[in-house]
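pinned: reference chain
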Amino acid sequence: MADSRSEITRIFVLVAATVVVVVAVFLVQAWRSGLTVREMFSGPPPSLTETIESSRATARLGERLDLHAPRPVGTPVAPDDRPMIAHVSIADLDRDGLNDIVVADAAANRITWIRQAPAGTFTESTIGEVAGPAHAQAVDLDRDGDLDVVVASLGVLFPNNAKIGSVIVLENDGRQAFTKRVLVEQIARVSDVRAGDLDGDGDLDLAVAQFGYDQGETRWMENLGGWTFESHILQSLSGPINAEMADVDGDQDLDIVSLVSQEWEEIYAFVNDGRGTFTPKRIFGASNEDFGSSWITVVDMDRDGDVDVLYSNGDAFDYAPPTGRTWNGLQWLENRGHEFRYHRIGDFSGASSPQAADMDGDGDIDVVVVSAYNNWERPDAWSLAMFENDGRMGFTLRPIAGTPTHLITLAIGDLDGDARPDLATGGMHMSYPFDRMSRVMVWTSRDADEHR
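pinned: its C-alpha cells
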C-alpha cells in the first residue's frame, strides 16, 4: 500500500511539474513577444485562418506584360560568380538630379553605389565594406544636407546564432566620400534598419529588426546626438525581417510595423505614444508555421488616407530544392482604424519584396513582385510580375519576365527622367540553375498604353 501511494505521489509530482513547465514556457513567450498571456493564447482567429485558405488564387491570370526594357547595370556577372544581392534601393545619392541605385552585396560583403552620370550611364563603386549586408537606406541621418547610408549587417548571410550583427552608417561628407560608423555591434544578426523621428525631438532615430536565428529582437535606437544611440528592446522573438515606420493609427507620430518569420509568421504594430513608448499589437498571425513570410511594405493600398500593409509570403530557403510552395503569394492588410483586415491578392511562387505604385498610369495602386524560389525548369516560372489593380482592389497577374531567375529584391523609382516608374532588381543565386543569373538589373518603362 505504501509503495502504491508513493507511486501515485511521484506521478502527481511529475504531472504538476510538467504543467508548471508548460505554463512557464507560455509566460516566457508572452514576455518575449510583449503581448499579454491572453493575447498569446488567443492566436489568429478562426475567421482569419479560414479567410487565408478560402481566398487563395484570387487574382486572374492575364497576358504577359511588355511594359519595361531590361538591362544589366554595374559590375557584370563573371563566369564563376554566384551573385547574392540582398537589397537594392533607388536614391539620388549625389543630389545631381539623376536617381542612382544603392546595393547591398552579400556575396562581396560591401555596399555599392551604382551612380547614374550622365543620364543613362551607370557606374558601380564601393562605398563601404560591411559583413553580410541585408538592407541599405539612403537618408540624411545627421541632418547636414547630404544623404548618408544606414545599413543592416547580418554578419553572415546564412543561419547563425552568434551575436555578429551590427547597425552601421556610412556617413557622407557631402562629396560622396563615406566614413563607416558602427552604431551598435555584437547583437543578433540585423536584417533591417529604418530611420525616422520616433520620440518627437527633431532628430532621426532607428527601428531595427534582428533576425538572429533561434534568438532575435526588435528594437528602436534613440538618437542622443554625436553619433550616440541608446537601444530600447521592443520584442525578443526570433526571425524579424522588416521594421518599417509609419503612422498606422493616424495620431501624427511614427509607429513601427514589424514582420516576424521563423515559427511565428506574424506582423506586429508597435503603437507609439509620441514620446518613444510603444505598445505591441499583433495585427496578423498565420496558423501555418511554414507560411514563408518574406517582406512587408507599408503603403496606402486603397487610397483612403491611412496606411495599409502589403505582405508577401514566399520564403523557401529551408526547402531542398528551394522551389517555393503552393501557398506562396501576396496579400494586403487593410487598415480599418481599430483593426487590420486581411485580403489575399493572389498566388505567386517564391514571392518577395512587393512594391506598390501606379505602374500603368490609370490612377490606382498596382503591385510589382519578384520571385527568388521557383521551379525554374517550368516555362511559367516567373521571376518578375505585376498584379494589375482594376480600381476596385481586384487584381490580375501580369507576368513580366522569367529571365533572369532568383530575383529577391526590387525597388521602384524614376531612373530615366520620364516621370514614370522604373524598376531595379537584385539576384540572389544560392541554388540551381545558374544559367540565367543577374546582379543588378534596370527595367525602364515603356509607354503604358503599349500594354493595354
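why pinned: Residues 19-28, 448-452 have pLDDT under 50 and may be disordered. The longest strand covers residues 178-187.
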